[in-house]
Amino acid sequence: MGEAKRRKSALGEKYGQGENILPWVPITKSQAEQFVKLTTRGAWFGIGAMVAIWVTVRFIGPAFGWWQTLD
User: pLDDT for 18-56, tens place per residue?
Assistant: First the structure.
């Protein structure tokens, strides 16, 4: 408990707030982690959508006679 009190007195108002990535960038490390998680999830969603569209164009559409592929 003593270490927490010393840290609180040393940091003052900044105690309990996240650290910035760089001093001149107003983004905390936790915000950066959330951004990475969000963009990773979006990338996987995009990859899944691209695969679904490719399967539709390449296999489903020609199977139902919607169009023909130019093989």
Answer: 777 777 778 888 888 999 999 999 999 999 999 999 999
Q: Whole-angstrom Cα distance, residue 53 to residue 59? A: 10
Instruction: List C-alpha distances in Å: 32 to 1, 25, 39.
Output: 30, 11, 11
Q: pTM, whole model, 2 decimals?
A: 0.65
Backbone angles phi, psi at 26, to 5 degrees: -80, 45
How far from 48 is each of 31, 42, 43, CA to CA, in Å? 26, 10, 9
Which residue's structure tokens are 């951004």?
Answer: 35
- Spatial CB neighbours of 63, under 8 Å, sequence gap ≥ 6: none
| Separation of alpha carbons 37 and 27, rounded Å | 15
